[in-house]
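Structural biology now treats backbone shape like a language. To illustrate, our science desk offers a sequence and the tokens encoding its fold:
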Amino acid sequence: MTETPISGNHTPTTLRAGAEEEAARLPALLARAEHLAGAVLLGAHGRRRAGTGDDFWQYRPAQIGDSRRMIDYRRSAMGDQEFVREREWQIAQSVMLWIDQGASMRFSSDPNLPQKADRVRVLGLALAILLLRGGERVGLTGTRLPPRSGNPQLLRLAQVFCEDDPADFSPPEHRAMIPHARAVFISDFMGDMSGVQLALTKAADRGVRGVLYHVLDPSEEAFPFRGRTIFESVGGTLRHETLKANDLRDRYLARLAERKAELQRLCALTGWRYGVHHTDASAQSALLWLYSALDARAGVAA
């Protein structure tokens, strides 16, 4: 007996196996994020406030993930679209995350070092744990997972973070930016800079301030290659072979410096904070910097 494909080459068996494989990653990711978050002392960053807030801020169109009780039926009755009534303190406590899940993040120059994807997933989830414990509402940029509070949101974030994007480079998500909220982008920023510029411009237009965290493998910072070398993207779409890799070093380092300078310039223009992290450095120090940077004014940190 043969199985009928559901879509493409997937059958019920392969889909189930894939789902079980993805689900198996969740407990380990959650445990590591909890352990990392537990090593960082909670400061005065989060604000705990009871109730639903009194100060009206705005109406916004209802999004996927909003509960029915959030709908303002009086405002929605004026048209064909449902609207949510948001309070001012809820906006101030909303933090939107974007972590790069592109193929370039699945790189590590040494078996003893974590992949960039692994590091950003743990950092993103641990940061969410700290923010949720501090009374913040945490979600993703875009429309898939709007900021919400509570432990169920943590599981939703972990599920999304475990996904991989097959594309070599993944641009930041810039849709559905909540006005005057905060945001965190974590990536190697090796792709087209136009996507980063668009996202930060959109954020600035809506009064969103945040943190841009540049995560690199140490080999990407030092370029230790010599002699005959084949450079190939993780996704397999780019390939370059050279007999004298060391001749490329100065040009590569110059372009990397230019990219860092451009990211810093964009952050300075939009009121964001820029930081750099290498995967051979402590994840705990990275989380502490990220957590503190959300309350800091625009600037640069190495």
Summary: Confidence is low (pLDDT under 50) at residues 1-8, 42-54, 297-302.
